[in-house]
Specification:
Number of helices: 14
CATH architecture of the largest domain: 2-Layer Sandwich
Strand content: 15-25%
Number of strands: 11
CATH class of the largest domain: Alpha Beta
CATH superfamily of the largest domain: Formiminotransferase, N-terminal subdomain
Largest sheet: 7 strands, mixed
Number of domains: 3
Shape: globular
Radius of gyration: 24 Å
């Protein structure tokens, strides 16, 4: 069984994308860890990167990213609307599969020590990893932000780091390292530039002011868009689902005489959040199934920890679709199996055993992967036809299955291409390469895209 965690480090740079590229590069290429997503915002001057994989590999990737951020980001020159205490502001570890919260706490503590030992970055532990009750809430650690914390950490023992000297890093500040449940970063834009309206709405909805449970919110000005934004962290979407947050913001905006201009998800979300609030996701700006954690894991790493366990929503009252439901489930199981096989083959190619394979084994394996890729493309095309007779409310379900088909096809192609150097016959290698290119062309065509 895969031991799987998510980590979502937040870096205090959202304008110079060359620096963000370098930070992401530092976190890439570590066996057992994958960069699933990255989002940068110039107004917040912040980038959010989503990592996933085995606990130790993900922790190492996050530590290296923090080291590169300390090298490239000078916090004495930093400006942005989002609260922050350092170049790598937060590093939260989230259990996903076969890993407990307590294990994530232990991982956070080890990662915090490594940040200090390697880069002399002081660390504050928060949420489940907090060593003091007042530091469970990140807001208490961030009080006054870096500018005030820099002095407070020196003179007030209650504000000194958990790891490191009382003083902060001269240019990188400090980092908050924690362990927590899934958090959904959700922004709602208003049709006004008046930041005071956004702040009033944030005050009305956040739990600390008596609003919705598990909601943290602040109002900020988005100068690049000429709008005000309610920036929200939803810390338990099962207690307070996303649609309830949206409806409450909408109600409060209307009460103030304004309206919602749009909303967006920052980073990735678990599939269950979509299932609980399907209508909300159809209202998001540029929402794609690629923003669903399980889909990204399937596409990038060949891992789908929850997709098999969560059935598609039934379509009561829609005869043709209801009749096709068993077929849809079969198709999904097939494409997920292709994804898993593709991942296994890729892993074996990267880590060959000492036993030499038979001369024609790589050729047979490459042919098998090409066949899997072709089958997945055909499944995708069939799904597009079936989707045409589906009710609009079920489009997200169809998108999830289509995304899995594309992930399976690409994974199988990558596996076939990984075997090319092992092929003894140049003619066979060229034939495999040509066939792979033809399938790739289909995947890249307008008819076969993950955005449909």
């Amino acid at each position: 069984m895969n031991r799987l965690i998510e980590c979502v480090p937040n870096f205090s740079e959202g304008r110079d994308l060359s620096k963000v590229d370098a930070i992401v590069d530092a976190m890439s290429g570590i066996a057992g860890a994958w960069v699933l997503d990255r989002t940068s915002d110039p107004d917040h001057n912040r980038s959010v990167v989503t990592l996933a994989g085995s606990p130790e590999a993900v922790a190492e990737a996050a530590i290296r990213g923090a080291g590169k951020a300390a090298e490239l980001i000078d916090m004495t020159q930093h400006e942005g609307v989002h609260p922050r205490i350092g170049a790598t502001d937060v590093i939260p570890f989230v259990p996903v599969g076969n890993v407990s919260m307590q294990e994530c706490v232990a991982l956070a503590r080890r990662a915090g020590q490594e940040l200090w030992d390697r880069y002399r970055i002081p660390v504050y532990f928060y949420e489940a990893a907090a060593t003091r009750p007042e530091r469970v809430n990140l807001e208490n650690i961030r009080k006054g932000q870096l500018e005030l914390l820099r002095d407070a950490a020196l003179r007030d023992p209650g504000r000194s780091p958990d790891i490191g000297e009382p003083g902060l890093h001269p240019t990188a500040g400090a980092s908050a390292v924690g362990a927590r449940k899934f958090l959904i970063a959700y922004n709602v834009l208003l049709n006004t530039s008046d930041v005071f309206v956004a702040r009033e709405i944030a005050r009305a909805i956040r739990s600390s002011s008596g609003g919705l449970p598990h909601v943290k919110a602040m109002g900020v000005e988005m100068k690049t868009r000429g709008l005000a934004q309610v920036s929200i962290n939803l810390t338990d979407f099962e207690v307070t689902p996303l649609h309830l947050v949206f409806e409450t913001v909408q109600h409060e905006a209307e009460r103030c005489g304004y309206a919602v201009a749009g909303s967006e998800i920052i980073g990735l979300i678990p599939r269950k959040a979509v299932d609980l609030s399907p209508e909300s996701f159809l209202l998001l700006e540029n929402f794609s199934p690629a923003q669903v954690l399980e889909n990204r894991l399937a596409a990038v790493a060949g891992i789908a920890p929850q997709l098999k366990r969560q059935p598609l929503s039934p379509a009561p009252g829609v005869g043709p679709v209801a009749a096709l439901q068993p077929l849809v489930e079969t198709l999904r199981e097939a494409v997920l199996e292709f994804s898993e096989r593709a991942w296994d083959a890729s892993h074996e190619a990267a880590h060959p055993t000492s036993i030499a394979p038979e001369r024609d084994e790589p050729e047979r394996a490459a042919e098998a992967h090409l066949g899997a890729a072709s089958a997945a493309v055909e499944i995708y095309e069939s799904l597009v036809q079936l989707e045409a007779v589906s009710a609009p409310s079920k489009l997200l379900d169809w998108n999830m299955v289509k995304q899995a088909a594309i992930a399976a096809a690409r994974g199988a192609l990558e596996s076939a291409e990984a075997l090319l150097p092992s092929l003894q016959d140049a003619g066979t290698a060229e034939r495999i390469k040509t066939a792979a290119a033809e399938i790739e062309a289909k995947l890249s065509s307008k008819q076969v895209t993950t955005g449909n």
